[in-house]
Amino acid sequence: MDWLGATFMLLGISCLLVGLSWVGRPSPSGWGDWRILAFSCVGGFAMLGLVLYENIWATQPMFNLAIFNSIPTIMVYIGGLLHGLLLLCHLQNLPMYLILVKYLSPALAGLGIVVITAPVLPALLLTAKMGIARNASLSRWVVRAGWALNLLASSCFILLDAETPSPGWEGKDSANTNTNTNTNAITTISHTRREEGEQAVPRSPS
């Protein structure tokens, strides 16, 4: 286990998320706030240190740039990053909508989030059962369909208001899927463990 690499990863991502979260606070200084700049800089330097350490000094690296040997592989990880950010926005803003607009209690808002995310597990089990990850052409179409549903679900945010019925906001976010199934279809078996580690990094915001 590469403990130092894991420490760099958690420190970098956590500091970046703290800095980005604080930007939205009512503050006259905005990005000029020294605390926001400090966390953002620490996070950025930690991620840079992670890249250098994993590729120069680590004896058993969790990550390896050799995995990024083709355009499809690179696009999968970029998609993982974007999907993680998309899930972060959805799961942060939807509870605010339920509490501030629909006037639900925190307990009911949490239950609503559980209802929204519940279809993910059966979908993943079905995907594994069908062996989609072993079929390169089929897995790519699944990812494309998932992104189309993501775009549709994200666009439906503008339709949510105080009069939206429960099935409306429940169905909106249930369209979210993930891109993990495509990584095994386009990379070699020898890189499987590193794929899992590297796929966790771009999706970690969610």
Automatic annotation (TrEMBL):
Record's keyword annotation contains Transmembrane helix: yes
Keyword Manganese: no
Membrane topology: Multi-pass membrane protein
Biased composition (Low complexity): 175-189
Protein localization: Membrane
Segments crossing the lipid bilayer: 6-24, 36-53, 65-88, 100-121
The protein's name: Uncharacterized protein
Species: Aspergillus ochraceoroseus
Lineage start: Eukaryota, Fungi, Dikarya, Ascomycota, Pezizomycotina
